[in-house]
Amino acid sequence: MSKVNPTPSNSDRMLIGTPGAVTGNLLQKLEERRAWRLKETASPHLWVLVAILGDLIMAVAAGHAAYWLRFHSFLRDFGNWNDMTLRQYTGHMTLGSLTLILAIGWQGIYHRNVLLRNRWIASRLGKAVLIWTLAFLAMTLALKMEPPISRVYVALNGACALLLLLGWRIAFNRFLHSPSRIRSLQQRTLFVGWNEDAQRLWETLSQDKAHAFELIGWVDASGWRDASAPPLDIPFVGYLEDIHRVIARHEVDMIIVADLSRQHLVELANLCEREMIQFKLAPSVFRIFVSGLSLETIAGTPVLGVNRLPLDSTLNVMAKRALDIAGATVGLILSAPIIAFFGFMVWWESGGPIFYRQRRWGMNGVPFDIIKIRSMKLNAEANTGAQWCVQDDPRRLKVGAFMRKWNIDEVPQFWNVLKGQMSLVGPRPERPELIADFKHEIPHYNARHHAKPGMTGWAQVKGLRGDTDLAERIKCDLWYLENWSLLLDVQIMFLTFFKRDNAY
Fold this sequence. Notes:
Elements: H1 10-13, H2 24-40, H3 42-72, H4 90-106, H5 118-143, H6 151-176, H7 179-185, E1 187-192, H8 196-207, E2 213-220, E3 236-239, H9 243-250, E4 254-257, H10 262-274, E5 278-281, E6 293-298, E7 301-306, H11 314-350, E8 355-361, E9 367-373, H12 398-405, H13 414-418, E10 423-425, H14 438-441, E11 454-456, H15 458-461, H16 470-482, H17 486-496
Helix pairs in contact: 2-9, 3-4, 3-6, 4-5, 5-6, 11-12
């Protein structure tokens, strides 16, 4: 939607209007919306309670199903067990059902803003059930509960719980998606100001039909007097000084500020408080690691900063290192014949050394020597110096082209992983001479060095390797650091075998 520049002066245009600017009809509409919001506030909480109750029923049903399968089906002949009555297992079932609900709640599922996010809920349910299964078995064995619990029963309980919970949640999600219920669950959201962060958030929410926000449009807080083109594909609904009228006309529940001066920010926050509208601020100052933002108190003063990332946790670092050691050990054993064969092929084609050591930047910018099977001719960079490998690179050996396509030249890096210089998964290490100026030219480049470099990474499975868009690679690396999990590492390792775009 296009618009023309305002006629009033800049100073007048930037003043947030007063409630008197709202006509009687719009004011009545705003009051009606406020009354409806207060009346409907209980509805989302009611559906959260229904979700909890439904999950609890499924947990109890899973316990009974697991008992029947273990002691009254063909599985009764599997393993050693004593004949148990349902009454004897009631204590185990009760404890298991309650702790399962606690595990699900720990995953943050019981919140009104996520009720419509079926896929997100399904992934969290799977994680909660897996953690609960292992923890419940360990707890019951450690406490030596009587009667002794069957490990097969616990495994069956976890499997039944996952199936029943997913089935129930799919049905519940369809129930919630009726127009009347979505209206009470979704919040009518207005953007104030506009920038890249607002554009990115708008596009993300527009593509996700399960989000809890109904997007209205944006309010111009600048007048676009700098001849900048407004976003034509985003509904424009007014100016900052008309914010009262906009709020009333569009029945706004939430305001997200993307770009606004400090003075008007305070005024708008006060307005939202008076009108009982949720006030959100897109932290444009923080261009990276937004998921790690947290508010802490220093000497009695609240300070907002980035201090929490998944790999800042000692337990997460230990878990990742354990996966690296196990994976690298198995990888070296299984790849030994491959290294021997292709090493011989390299020697046969060009002579000289089989392995190639290359200086790379590691975690926190500490350099190390990466090990590869040589895929280039001897002294390939003697005349040209360091440069990216490109498609049909004439410096490659014949066997080198094949190795690079299938990532075989990277296999010896399992040794770098065992030494602790690299990880199985992480941002790919770069050559110092190629990236000396990148930290000055590319925003947030050095932020990727907060973690160990990896043999493969999220950018690589996305096809961003070699002579490709480095800015996009950095975005992928930062996304990985913000969203790290062991499951994500396993997923990336699996995709590495199938995603070979730009592998040359």
